[in-house]
Design brief:
With 255 residues, the protein is α+β, with helices and mostly antiparallel strands. The protein has helices at residues 30-47, 51-62, 67-73, 80-119, 138-152, 166-169, 206-215; strands spanning 2-6, 12-16, 156-157, 163-164, 200-201, 220-229, 240-249.
Length: 255
């Protein structure tokens, strides 16, 4: 059936209702065109020297306005029969290009890694980097300096036990039983022995003087550095602290 329509001169011209689009609007020679396009993309992939150049090839082929993407858009203007033939061919091309891109990317990454390993080779014969060795604790440093100073003046170092008897810690020093230092709120006592005596954590290094005088004859010139303990703990005191005492016994000693 033919319907009349009018041109600009109002003349009726017969027109077919089922008129097909012109043949020159449809893709021609699709398979040879895709084969040539795939070859061009393959050559561009092989020539890409790094991942940045490879990404440029990807955009040119599969990007929004890439050569493959533009041909995918043309499917909408094809007839169902042409689309049925061209669609699988274009999808297959797109998949092959994507696979070739990933293969080339992996090849470039491996080459870059090999180059990095070659240029950053570690010489295992080099000496190791020096490790920090730390420093002497301030208390120990002062302790050693005091010992060195008195050592230059002829003093020797005497030491004694941290756990003492009541006699060496108090009695031999004329500290009477009623002295506040003997109270449990000021001294760390151990549990009583069967005989009732109790050991203490020494409250000073003075017991070292008693022990030295018992075992050594004058002249005596010693210092007794060491840790001492008292039941005292606040912002300015700790239960353990360091002390240095000196003892000089000689007929010619003077200040």
């Amino acid at each position: 059936m033919v319907e009349p329509w009018r041109d600009d001169n109002r003349n009726e011209v017969p027109r077919s209702r089922n008129r097909s689009p012109p043949m020159n609007d449809q893709p021609q020679n699709l398979v040879p065109d895709l084969a040539a396009l795939e070859q061009d993309i393959t050559l561009a992939l092989a020539a890409a020297p790094d991942e940045r150049a490879l990404d440029e090839v990807r955009v040119a082929a599969l990007g929004k306005k890439g050569s493959v993407s533009e041909r995918m858009k043309a499917l909408g203007s094809m007839s169902p029969e042409e689309r049925k033939a061209a669609g699988p061919a274009l999808n297959s091309l797109r998949d092959r290009v994507a696979a070739a891109l990933e293969a080339r990317r992996e090849t470039l990454r491996e080459a870059a890694l090999e180059e990095r390993l070659r240029s950053e080779t570690v010489d295992v014969t080099l000496p190791a980097r020096p490790e920090p060795v730390g420093t002497v604790h301030p208390v120990t440093q002062v302790w050693e300096e005091v010992i060195a100073i008195f050592g230059d003046m002829g003093f020797s170092v005497a030491e004694g036990p941290h756990i003492e008897t009541d006699w060496y810690n108090f009695g031999a020093l004329n500290i009477p039983p009623e002295h506040p230092a003997r109270q449990e709120h000021d001294t760390f006592y151990f549990n009583p022995k069967p005989d009732g005596s109790r050991m203490v954590l020494r409250t000073h290094t003075s017991p070292v003087q008693i022990r030295t005088m018992e075992t050594s004859a004058p002249p005596i010139r010693i210092i007794a550095p060491g840790r001492t303990f008292r039941s005292d703990s606040d912002q300015t005191h700790t239960p353990m602290f360091h002390q240095v005492e000196g003892l000089v016994i000689d007929e010619t000693t003077h200040l």
